[in-house]
C-alpha cells in the first residue's frame, strides 16, 4: 500500500510554503522558498516547487510520501491539472500537474489555495463536524471556498468561491478586477489600511494613536498594526475593524442566502483581530439575513489552522484523491448526530474527487506501466 504521508505546497504571492502532512493533518516537516517574481518563466516557478518538494522528501526519507498537492493563488481549471490564471505568477493556461508529475514522479493534484484552506478547516479545524461550510479569507483581498456535503464545490469551470468580487455597493469603489463596489473593497486587509491611511493623510485628530505607531508616515501603516492598536484599546482602530466586520456581515448574509451553510469560517490575516472583527460581523449578519427569525443561523467562527491551512489542505486533498479509502474511514457522522452521512469508500471517492476517481485509475495505470 502507499506511503503514509503526503506533501502540501501553498503558493502565495510572496512565498512557496511546503509541508509533509500525516493522515491526521499534522505537519511533520516544513520547507519554504520565496515566490519567483511574476516576470520569470513558468519553469522558474516549477523549479522552486520541485526544490521545496525535494527538501521535504530529504527531511522524511525516501518512500514516505505518496502524493503531492498544490494549492495556488489563482484560477485552477475544472480539470484540476491546469492553472488558467495566477495574478502573482507568469502562469497562463499552465499545465502544472503534468509538468510536475514528469519531474517529481508522484501523483500531483492542483487546486485553488482557498479551496485547500477550506478543506483543511473542514477536516481538521474550525469546521469539523459540519456538513456545509463556507470559508471567507480576509487577506489583501477576499478568498473563498465552499465545502458542501463533504466535497469541495469548485463550480463548472473550477473557479467557484471568488466571493471578493460580488458587488455589495452599486457604483462603489473601483476594484482592480475592473468593476465597482466589490465586496473586497470594503472588507479586507487592503480596505482596513486604506481607511486608516485616509485618516492619517487628513491629519485627523482621531488617528493620533495610529500616527504615533508609524512615526507619522502613513505609508508604513499595515493591517496588523491597526489590529495591534485596536487590541490595545485605540477607539479609532476598533471602529475601523468594526467597519470591516460590518461589511463582512453583509457579504456573509448574501452567501447564506445562496449556500445555507452550517458554519462560516473566517480566515486570513485580518481574522487575527478575532471578536473585534467577528462581533460586528455577526450583528450585521443577523440584521441582514433573509428570513431572519424563521431559520437556523449559521455560526461565524475564526479559522483555527492559521497560515498552515493551505499546506495541510493541499496535502489532504492529494491524499483524498490518491487514497479515497482513508478519507472514507475518517468521514464519520458528525458529533451532533447531524447531517453528515456515512459514506462508503466508493461513494467517498466519487464525493471527494469527482471526477478524480477516474484520475486515480489513470495514475495507477501510469505507475504500473
Ligand atoms: Zn472586483
UniProtKB/TrEMBL annotation:
Biased composition (Basic residues): 356-369
MF GO annotations: ATP binding; glucokinase activity
Assigned keywords, A-Z: ATP-binding, Kinase, Nucleotide-binding, Transferase
Presence of the UniProt keyword Transferase in the record: yes
GO CC field: cytoplasm
Enzyme class at the top of the EC tree: transferase
Name listed for the protein in its UniProt record: Glucokinase
Taxonomic source organism: Candidatus Phosphoribacter hodrii
Amino acid at each position: 500500500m502507499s506511503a503514509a504521508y503526503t506533501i502540501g505546497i501553498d503558493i502565495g504571492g510572496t512565498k512557496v510554503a511546503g509541508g509533509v502532512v500525516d493522515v491526521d493533518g499534522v505537519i511533520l516537516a516544513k520547507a519554504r522558498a520565496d515566490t519567483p517574481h511574476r516576470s520569470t518563466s513558468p519553469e522558474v516557478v516549477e523549479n522552486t516547487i520541485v526544490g521545496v518538494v525535494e527538501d521535504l522528501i530529504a527531511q522524511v526519507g525516501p518512500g514516505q510520501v505518496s502524493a503531492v498537492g498544490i494549492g495556488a493563488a489563482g484560477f485552477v481549471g475544472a480539470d484540476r491539472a491546469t492553472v488558467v490564471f495566477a495574478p502573482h505568477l507568469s502562469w497562463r493556461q499552465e499545465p502544472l500537474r503534468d509538468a510536475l508529475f514528469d519531474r517529481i514522479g508522484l501523483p500531483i493534484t492542483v487546486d485553488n489555495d482557498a479551496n485547500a484552506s477550506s478543506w483543511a478547516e473542514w477536516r481538521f479545524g474550525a469546521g469539523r463536524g459540519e456538513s456545509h461550510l463556507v470559508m471567507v479569507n480576509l487577506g489583501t483581498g477576499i478568498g473563498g471556498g465552499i465545502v458542501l456535503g463533504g466535497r469541495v464545490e469548485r463550480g463548472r469551470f473550477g473557479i467557484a468561491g471568488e466571493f471578493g468580487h460580488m458587488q455589495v455597493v452599486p457604483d462603489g469603489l473601483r476594484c482592480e478586477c475592473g468593476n465597482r463596489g466589490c465586496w473586497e473593497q470594503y472588507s479586507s486587509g487592503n480596505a482596513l489600511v486604506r481607511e486608516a491611511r485616509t485618516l492619517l493623510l487628513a491629519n485627523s485628530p482621531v488617528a493620533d494613536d495610529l500616527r504615533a505607531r508609524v512615526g507619522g508616515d502613513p505609508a508604513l501603516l499595515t493591517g496588523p498594526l491597526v489590529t495591534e492598536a485596536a487590541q490595545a484599546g485605540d477607539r479609532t482602530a476598533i471602529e475601523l475593524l468594526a467597519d470591516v466586520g460590518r461589511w463582512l456581515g453583509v457579504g456573509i448574509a448574501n452567501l447564506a442566502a445562496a449556500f445555507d451553510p452550517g458554519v462560516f469560517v473566517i480566515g486570513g490575516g485580518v481574522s487575527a483581530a478575532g471578536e473585534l472583527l467577528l462581533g460586528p460581523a455577526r450583528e450585521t449578519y443577523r440584521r441582514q439575513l433573509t428570513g431572519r427569525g424563521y431559520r437556523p443561523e449559521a455560526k461565524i467562527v475564526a479559522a483555527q489552522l492559521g497560515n498552515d491551512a493551505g499546506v495541510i489542505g493541499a496535502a489532504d486533498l492529494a491524499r483524498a484523491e490518491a487514497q479515497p479509502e482513508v478519507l472514507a474511514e475518517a468521514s464519520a457522522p458528525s458529533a451532533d448526530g447531524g447531517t453528515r452521512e456515512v459514506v462508503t469508500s466508493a461513494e467517498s471517492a466519487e464525493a471527494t474527487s469527482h471526477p478524480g476517481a477516474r484520475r486515480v485509475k489513470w495514475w495507477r495505470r501510469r505507475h504500473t506501466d
